[in-house]
Amino acid sequence: MISDAIGAGGKRVIDAIVRGLARSRINPNALTFTGLLINIGCGVLYGYGRFFTAGLLMILANFFDMLDGQVARSRGRVTSFGAFFDSVIDRYSDVIVYVGIMVFFARDTAAHSTLLVALTGLALVGSVMISYSRARAESLNIACKVGFLERPERVVLLIIGSLTEFGPAGNPFLHKIPQVLWVLAVLSHWTVVHRVYHTWREMRAPDRAAVEVARIQREQAREEKLVRADYSVQS
């Protein structure tokens, strides 16, 4: 009951914000770009090791990322370019945040860790490949939203990990960014593998049919060539 009331209250607040933005005639793409600028700020904060503040700022950045689509739908301005622009900006936002984390752990400080730099790099590659694998599958007309670690899950994990980066180092419930990076590095690539397997399963029948058609065409071409050769000999 309490969670339902909180959810309903939150929805009313968001709907009111969306209506206000829609009345202001703001371009939804401007909201998308504003989210990118905030994520750049997050990347800078991560680079300086201010994880907790960066986590709070990421909440705001992704609030803008949520609003742009809702404002576009509210104003009837859902366009193919808007979807494309949102996807491109999301990739930039992801990369910038991960690069900021890599910079922090690569700096010559007490927190320097080659392992965590590598894990963050693996998480970055996995993040990009999750999006790329879906885009390539959809170019083949295959819906490919399978897998656990889509962008919302990755963002939530980073925010949760970042918000634990405060207080005494010995607290077992705090300073969980290393664990979050392990999860992101492993599960992002697991998601990519899942999507590759899903696409393979969906394409098995069409691929077999295409191979069979190609085989029949080769045989027909070979038979036509033999017929022409036999006709030339008889002539």
List keywords for this structure.
single chain, Four Helix Bundle (Hemerythrin (Met), subunit A), mainly alpha, 235 residues
Structure notes:
The chain is extended. The protein is mainly α and 235 residues long. The protein has a single domain, classed as Four Helix Bundle (Hemerythrin (Met), subunit A) (Up-down Bundle). It is built from seven helices and no strands. α1 crosses α3. The relative contact order is 0.09. Helices cover 81% and strands 0% of the residues.
Structure in a nutshell:
With 235 residues, the protein is mainly alpha-helical. The chain has helices at 2-23, 28-47, 51-74, 80-106, 114-139, 151-163, 177-234.
Topology (elements, then pairings):
Blueprint (H helix, E strand, L loop, with lengths): L1 H22 L4 H20 L3 H24 L5 H27 L7 H26 L11 H13 L13 H58 L1
Helix pairs in contact: 1-3, 2-3, 2-4, 3-6, 4-5, 5-7, 6-7
Calculate Rg over CA atoms. Answer: 25 Å
Number of helices: 7
Fraction in beta strands: under 5%
Kindly report the name of the CATH homologous superfamily: CDP-alcohol phosphotransferase transmembrane (TM) domain
Mean pLDDT: 87
